[in-house]
Amino acid sequence: MNANFRVTRRALLALAAALLAACAQIAPVADPLPSWNEGAAKSAIVQFVRKTTDAASPQFVPPAQRVATFDQDGTLWIEQPMYAQLAFALDRVKDVVKAQPSLAGEEPFKTVLSGDRAAMTRIKTEDLLKIVAVSQSGLTIETFHEVVKNWAATAKHPKYGRPYTELVYVPMLEVMKYLRSNGYRTYIVTGGGQEFVRAFAEAVYGVPPEQVVGTMFKLDYAIRDGKPTLTNAPALLFVDDSGGKPVGINMMIGRRPQAAFGNSGGDQQMLEWVTGGTGARLGMLVLHDDAQREFAYGPAAGLPASHVGSFTQALYDDAKKQGWTVISMKSDWKRVFAFD
Amino acid sequence: MNANFRVTRRALLALAAALLAACAQIAPVADPLPSWNEGAAKSAIVQFVRKTTDAASPQFVPPAQRVATFDQDGTLWIEQPMYAQLAFALDRVKDVVKAQPSLAGEEPFKTVLSGDRAAMTRIKTEDLLKIVAVSQSGLTIETFHEVVKNWAATAKHPKYGRPYTELVYVPMLEVMKYLRSNGYRTYIVTGGGQEFVRAFAEAVYGVPPEQVVGTMFKLDYAIRDGKPTLTNAPALLFVDDSGGKPVGINMMIGRRPQAAFGNSGGDQQMLEWVTGGTGARLGMLVLHDDAQREFAYGPAAGLPASHVGSFTQALYDDAKKQGWTVISMKSDWKRVFAFD
């Protein structure tokens, strides 16, 4: 071999690209959704991903537009017998009353301190918001995150005796991972507090803080002890629930997502907004019909109604009309939790 | 050569990676900031990028945390003699009054319709917000974007006779591109309307909608003619200026950026918040001291004060104290606009 080779940058790049393509073909194709039984729900997800990511598909979606949104409570993790954030806020009330003893005689704090769980379930929404507001107001963002992390590491769910962050649905984690490996950005769009969820979203779901859309409290900016700080104020800025979900999505993302996952009436408008766009869209709703492994509630399946995240007959009818897929926890999921 | 080769996937990947690394070394190193004169400002940017992206640097910043925020008016594009969004809103008032003739007799619309530019510059902030609100309320997000795009394509700046979207600072576009090519996400954080800026941010700055933080109006979600719609309501949700900038950054990004660029008192809190973090931080302020190529204003440089984005002596003193770099448009920039 006597010829002189001049290795150009272009030739090297072409060779490298060809080798990488070859590697990709050698890679084994594993089932991306191993915790899902074969059926309409699993198939809807796989078909949606194929047709929106295959460049030859008429329904191809460019990577920049690949956005999927997930409700949290009842969709990604457990919401019974009460929202995790409410459990957190109730636990926090004791600390807050220690600092402001006058609150002990005022409702709704009086009811909370009584320990009467039945009475607590009857607390009205505006009073719940008062509890949530009090549980974080006056704390800087960083301190609030620490408080939430400490709570998440120690609080136990009454049924399972495990931390709430272990009560996450493995099949949904698989969907998030599958979508991300296909170029989708996965956002959480929750009625829960944005900062509450941010405190653990990256560790639990692999979702970074900029992809958490939630109910927002006002924040005060000030220099304290020479340091710039952001402190939670005891006032709501924005409620990210029901009709607020499309608004929150527009505010934080500025594009209409291609896919949305929910489980209750508070997600209906998000699913309408997402699946109302052109091209391939995916709308899915988790039905809690698995009393053995989790909980069973929702009149749509002849199950008892619930004041927490109920799947009503009206939502079921709307799902049929709109082409949304209902996920049966009982029959679509091989397992629910990682410890199953 | 008689040996049998078994090409494993691992070996191919290693070879491909080695080739790509070789290609990267062969690539010529071009000046990433060709429109900048050599000096303290250019050097501050280059040094910041080097020390935060070199894995061996003690100030290395992991890619997920690489965020830089840019004010728009006066930092990325022209803000004199009036904010572009105000020029847009004033132009829109005529259309709005056509639809609602009763407004013609009411202030501030009466002043706007008089065409008296001097009187217009005296309109108070709350009245300006009224004009801005009226210029977009009742329109769906999609229609509002169309209206803004049409305006941007036709409206001309009074001094240059060119569209506002051509009055963008080339040196700042270079900084954004340079940061992005080093793994930074570049956000616009503007006192201007979030949807106003989104209408052109991707085309003009390469900034996608989810990276535009701005003043937000309330939105109404509803099904109209069978279609889910988001419509601008005539009420403010959030003002992204001064102390609102750190709040808007937290809301939309949920992390403290590593670098921030501004030009006026409305950016001071953003720079405080950003440079108040640990590790390598970059705070920069554009000083408009170039009457020939652009405008000259700002008491800090002995220039006239301006009611639009002024660089005060107090801001200048704060910049010195905080270690922020002042960019002199006149001496740091080889050229200002693409048409120079």
Overall mean pLDDT of chain A: 91
Distance between the termini of chain A: 63 Å
Biggest chain pair contact, residues each?
A: A-B, 44 and 44 residues
Question: What class would the helix/strand composition of chain A place it in?
Answer: alpha/beta
Helix amount of chain A: 40-55%
Order of helices and strands of chain A: HHEHHHHHHEHEEHEHEHEH
> What is the rounded Rg of chain A?
23 Å
Low-confidence stretches of chain A: 1-5
Shape of chain A: globular
The profile of the biggest β sheet of chain A is: 7 strands, mixed
| Biggest sheet, spatial arrangement of strands of chain A | 4-3-2-1-5-6-7
Multimeric state: homodimer
Q: What share of residues are in beta strands of chain A?
A: 15-25%
Number of strands of chain A: 7
Helix count of chain A, per DSSP? 13
Describe the structure.
Two copies of one chain form a homodimer. In chain A, 41% of the residues lie in helices and 15% in strands. Chain A is built from 13 helices and seven strands. Chain A has helices spanning 9-26, 40-53, 84-99, 109-114, 117-120, 125-136, 141-154, 170-181, 194-205, 244-252, 268-275, 313-322, 329-332, and strands at residues 67-70, 185-193, 212-224, 227-238, 259-262, 282-287, 325-328. In chain A, α3 packs across α6 (125-136), α7 (141-154) packs across α9 (194-205) and α10 (244-252) packs across α11 (268-275). Residues 1-5 of chain A have low confidence and may be disordered. Chains A and B meet through α1, β3, β4, α10 and α11 of A and α1, β3, β4, α10 and α11 of B.
